[in-house]
Amino acid sequence: MIDNFAKQMPRRRSIPVKVGNVTVGGDTPVVVQSMTNTDTADADATVAQVAALAKAGSEIVRITVDRPEAAAQVARIRERLDRIGVDVPLVGDFHYIGHKLLTDYPDCAAALDKYRINPGNVGFKAKRDTQFSQIIDLAQKHDKPVRIGVNWGSLDQELLTKLMDENAASEKPISASAVMREAIIQSGLLSGERAEALGMSRDKIILSAKVSQVQDLIAVYADLAQRCDYALHLGLTEAGMGSKGIVSSAASMGILLQQGIGDTIRVSLTPEPGGDRTREVQVAQELLQVMGFRAFVPVVAACPGCGRTTSTVFQELASDIEGHIRASMPSWREQYPGVEGLNVAVMGCIVNGPGESKHADIGISLPGTGETPSAPVFVDGEKVLTLRGDDIADDFKKMVLDYIENRYGKGASSPSSADLA
User: Residues annotated in the binding site, as ranges?
Assistant: First the structure.
């Protein structure tokens, strides 16, 4: 089974970092995180989106802190989230003037659970070390971890130029893209070393090294993982919109995760016009779940359909059940401990339907083209009954909900076939 195989894969050893009430790294499960796209100065909108992301399953949420108006609202945002019972850790995303904002707004510095520093724009020339040092000092004062987040779109140009010049003078020069990757890695490692020299402990440092091309991301993190034991934040930056962003993120991060690399992930999707920001959380969860590293929601297996399945009943039923499960999970996590491990099968004909349904906890094989209009239902590998008539879909949905109650309800034991027959 893929989940057993994945659990046996060796995990890169990293130093665990406490971010609010969440631990990143060490032997803890890979953490899902996301970022708001609201104006942080708009506290109402930001509170609403942070709450929605947390409800969707984001275990850490990052917010932009780019100017005084935003910094002034951070403590208020934290207070309002606490008031409504949303205890998700908040990370402040700082660029250019983070040192000043954290100094001028100490309540902001105290309210955040982690600071993100970009070594490519924390300061320039003579100011770079001074302003970086200020943020590290403030992080230590408030006992906060930092993420040193390198991004190739804002890479330290002095470092890149230096490495390019050295490469040009080398007897065996490497490609410009390889020099770029090395500059990204060095920027993160040198900044981590600088933070440690300033007194920050290694269990307060997370690194990221984001690029927007799949092969570059794999190469950068594979190298970075061998050269340090800092906890690593994975993400393909500017992944794109829709299927392109999903496929690119899954392809790159999936390979790294399979190699044991990555302690927290963010899927950076460009939302569709009017789209839901929580989509990136769902994709991150699905990536970890299909690879067998974590379980977030029950799995609904459904066949793709073919000439045998001209009816759309199985598609509608699978979609209906999956949608209901995902919408119900925030309350079900408390009400039905372990329900995220449930497997449901909704199949469209007799070819693979019965077999697939037997492998699931509860499954149905709906009639395909030309088949008898009946639908056998299997529970824990055994056929328990056959549904017929116009209410097959509604009857099966009720059986699924009854199965969840009987198996995962507090004080309940796993249901027998007889219980559901």
Answer: 303, 306, 349, 356
pLDDT digits (tens, 9 = 90+) for 123-144: 888 788 899 999 999 999 999 9
**CB-CB contact of 208 with 233 (8 Å):** yes
What are the angstrom distances between the C-alpha of 107 and each of 77, 88, 259? 11, 18, 40
pLDDT tens digits along 332-372: 888 999 999 999 999 988 898 899 999 999 999 988 888 88
How far apart CA 367 and CA 353 sit, in angstroms, is: 9
pTM of the predicted structure, to 2 decimals: 0.90
Name the DSSP class of 205: E
Tokens of 57: 């399953």
Residue 307 tokens read as 């000439």
pLDDT at position 413 is 55
Return d(Cα 251, Cα 248) in angstroms, integer.
5
CA distances from 348 to 31, 305, 353, 377, 394 (A): 35, 7, 6, 12, 16
Quick: pLDDT tens for 369-393: 888 888 999 999 999 999 998 888 8
- Provide the token pair at 261: 């690399």
User: How many whole angstroms from its chain centre is CA 152?
Assistant: 21
Residue stretches of the annotated binding site for [4Fe-4S] cluster? 303, 306, 349, 356
Q: Residue 78: helix, strand or coil by DSSP? A: helix
pLDDT at position 261 is 98
Q: For residue 241, what are the contacts with CB-CB under 8 A and spacing of at least 6?
A: 269, 270, 271, 272
Residue 115, helix vs strand vs coil? strand
Q: What is the pLDDT of residue 176?
A: 94
Please answer whether residues 192 and 207 qualify as being in contact, where contact means their C-beta atoms are separated by less than 8 angstroms: yes
